[in-house]
Amino acid sequence: MPVVEFQAARPSHRPQAQTNNLHRANPVSDPRPTNDVHLVSVDDQRARFDKVVLPHLDDAFALARWLTGNRTDAEDVVQDACLRAFRAIGGFAEGNARAWVLTIVRHTAYTWLHKNRPAALVMVDDLEAAEEAQSNRSEPEVETPESILIAKTDSAALEAAIAALPAPFRETVVLRDIQGLDYREIADVTGVPIGTVMSRLARGRRRLMATIARSAS
Amino acid sequence: MTGLMPHDDPTLLVHAYLDGELDPINSVAVEQRMADDPALVAEYERVAALRQLLAERLPREAAPAHLRGRISSAIGLRQSRAQPSWRALAASIAVTAVLASGATWLALGPTADNGTADAIVADHIRALMAPQPTDVVTSDQHTVKPWFNGRIPEAPRVVDLAKDDFPLVGARIDVVGRTPVPTLVYRRHRHLISLTAIPGSRELEMAPVHKTMDGYNLMNWTDHGVTYWLVSDVAVSDLDQFCRLFRTTSPATDQ
Question: Is A106 helix (H, G, I), strand (E, B) or coil?
Fold first, then answer.
């Protein structure tokens, strides 16, 4: 029964409509009336960028690194994402700045990967479709007691296990367990319903535990 | 999180329970199901262990120092402009001073809330950008209170929430309006939570209120005439939990 529901929820890792608009004209040169909120001075735009985006640079970089797999690519992605955020800053209303920044970073990262590392993204759609067509119980069973997981896992093994997760699971686990977003924020950033966030999180965590248990035994 | 549960796979609900995403009714329901099902308890313990592992064993990921410079030059920012918080702080002091001219301290009531919220957020941002988010670094509540004594009239209530995953990082003095006020800094995983205590509220008790400002989550409430302000980029559910714990945990007896 959950199968239908998950498939219905699948227009998953398409970027949100909001992020698709990021390439629109630079608000500064936008010839709309002066009382339009999108029309801000360059100074205001910079001040807002400093206030809204820069405090979340560490989070932006961390997400980019988990999505691209290395720090050099992550720097390129974050710089590109910051340029997009700067152009779009006039359209950012009061709200969750961190989620907004991470949404842009995520979208930029996948665009960047499609262009520069297409191999990294191949099969993700198919993999998720295949998994969802199976029962929700198809995740590997983990029998190792939690004490052993904790005692034996070092950070390198943990990083490798996260890096090995398929992208939809990896981004969900990273956003929740490493970056501390709540379900609603993750749903906003990844553009999927909360139910999908929940099932991806559970699956991602179960896969992680299975990998860790294997390497610890 | 009522109404957000599109299915009732008990395993997913155990995860949501651990993530603090369930409302009290659903939490009780999950606890009851766990009491009847050892497999769910095992899942609970594994996931709790995994969460702890991820929180403790992964090195903190900071953006490399040169990235800020790369971004600044990419968007044509000069380095000297990267300090908006002082301007915001100055602006908010001006606003608050106007709103509360005269009896600045006592007039920091609900009408001045936006000015106060502005100052609270500006102080928090400035702390995040400074080399140290606190003036005194300590995880010991017994060190914090004496540090405040002598700097401000009254040391704030300090409680130890380390066992609940909110370790104390330190404390600093912030300025709201023109008044120095005590701020405690706690940590939730890698995120800092600033808790500012402003005495002299007109109301003796006020229930918690949520706000969002510049992307930061804020919460304020009043206990015994002291208004507490929480600001952080952690999830609202974490702030709720912190607020609940802070209000219900007794401070250790002062020496």
Answer: helix
